[in-house]
Design brief:
By secondary structure, the protein is of the alpha/beta class. Helices cover about 50% and strands about 10% of the residues. The structure holds glutathione (GSH).
Length: about 230
Amino acid sequence: MDPILIYGFPAGSSMGLVAAFEQMALPYRLCRVDMLHDMKNNRYSRINGRQETPVLITDDGHTLTETMAIIRWIERQDVHRRITFDPKSSEADRMYQFAAFVNTGFTAAFSPLWTAYEIQDGDPAYVSSLRKYGRRIVAERHQRLEAMLPESGLCIGDRLTLADTTLIGVARWAEFHDAAEAGDYPKLSALRRRIEAQPAVQFAMAIEAGKSPDGCGAFLGHVPLDEVIDRFGS
Ligand SMILES: N[C@@H](CCC(=O)N[C@@H](CS)C(=O)NCC(=O)O)C(=O)O
């Protein structure tokens, strides 16, 4: 079967994985999840007990969660090396090092800000503390990231890789939460523009926005979430 990537909106990290599938240019399907309304329930837990996106339904019908595991799966499929490197190369090591930094400390730093965002009628003092703490650790992780970034090209060399696609979904979160000034991180701002200019990323952003962009032909359409849960949920 064709793999199905379950991606979340709004502003999901999984937007980058949509770009990765598009760049890999092998047949794939997508399943769209409204993270604010369709994910925090027992039914979705049948697909991912942690009630998160992304989730991949692999070509043999198994569910695979966790971005790092999904990018490892993509690396194995990407025999033409359109989005990855030879797994034995030093570039592959650097790609994983970068993706792991982004997927752990950088992503986790936003947790207080997402919690504050999702609180509907909470204690204003608590929400304010969450935002204050969140802004502080987001700034610290941005400084670390800024120090790692190249002045030109993409994350690892000149072509789009899983390092870029892991970054691009979460690099916009500071903006979403109004938590950092783009001018304070000039290398990150410039890199984001270069990554977002890539056709596969343009495609993924349009998909996330609910449009029907022309892609490379590998995308075979959306599968409704209910159908994915009925067929593949535990
Ligand atoms: N460790 C997971 C984290 C994924 C993650 O943070 N997903 C977010 C969306 S980008 C999510 O589903 N958040 C919902 C929530 O936890 O409330 C991974 O790397 O795949």
